[in-house]
Amino acid sequence: MRIGELILAILLLILVASLVSSLGPVPLPPVFHDFMSLLVAVFEAFIILVAILLIVSYVVNLSRSNNSRRSIEARSLNTINNVRKSSQVNVSSVRDIMLNLNVLERLIRERISYYVPARVKGRGLKLKRGIPGLKVNLEGSTCYLVGEGSVSRVYLCVTDDGRKYALKIPKNLDLESIEDSSITLDDLVIDKFVREIEVLKKFNHPCIIKLVDYSVTVPAVLYEFADGLSLSYQVSSGWRPTLRDLLIILIQVTDAIRYVHSRGIVHGDLKLGNVLICDGIAKICDFSTVRDLLSSGLGSSITCTRGYCAPEQLIYDLRRKSIELGLEHKIDIYQIGNIALALLIGETIDGEERVKMTEFEVLKKVSKIEPIELRDLIIKMLEIDPLKRPSAEEVLKSLVNIYVKTFGVS
Predict the structure, then answer these.
(1) Cis peptide before 371, with omega less than 30 degrees from 0?
(2) Regarding the domain with residue range 125-224, which homologous superfamily does it belong to in the CATH classification?
(3) What is the pTM of this model?
(4) 86 confidence band (pLDDT: 50, 70, 90)
(5) 33 alpha carbon, distance to own chain's centre
């Protein structure tokens, strides 16, 4: 029975008892009147007790309600404080990320403090005509040979109004006879030029050499001119980078490779000769041998420069496993590690040599490199197993952290 119903029943009984006790003229025995009076007194006492219990219950419930409200408020306050703390942590994390991004954005456009300007030898060749198929008119330009590879030559071409370009043409194609239709070129050479043109047309990064113009009529590519030529030229000219300049160069090269990897491409032939200094900024070049990660296989040709090759570029089983695991892009990480070694100690560790070396021998070779964080990073980049090498993003993050720790953020 509910409390309300119980109280109603008691009130009815009291009402009946009161009516009965008020029937004075009714001829009832005195004992009955005494019993009814006692019953009324008991019910009145019961009512008083119930009232007291209701008052006590109300007071207790009110106290509990206040305590519960204070508890809820406390929990809400704790929740708010936790949210605020969490927000502060998140804001702090976002702030750190934004700081790192701002530092990276600045460093990939930072100029190194010093480098040797390009010096050209000889009188140069004055072009009587422009290059067929090029929109940029090089007629009357004076061109100087500044670089030569296995399949191509690179010239510095200076126009009459002083503009400078880098012109790349096949090695067996002479500038003086460039319009000679009787000259036959190897299909592989033509394919490499076409491939490089198609790749560079898709790229837009401050640390990748800029494509200015190209011709498919005669295989020719026109780039912005790197006034410091390559890192190979710099080293051969007696230049040695400071730690700050070294970190800037490695950050710029690594960020360019991160960008290349994000496009599903592996460079595969990074070396001092393929890193140019253009107005103080390091830029990677020579995309004639790049491959799409999704299209490369065990049967595709391997092109790398001995001394810089990754182990999987030279050892079939490692290469097969690398392709199966989708780790071909780690080739570039190994080669950037060798670029760092070449600039720091004047030596590299070729992939074939690396598999024969113990960890102690590797550590001994890099033991003089400072700071220790940079030494440890290079060791990781030169791991035999590509799975153990860091990604371009991880290398980039480590290099930025080393730079900030060593030189701060200005």
Answers:
(1) yes
(2) Phosphorylase Kinase; domain 1 (3.30.200.20)
(3) 0.75
(4) very low
(5) 99
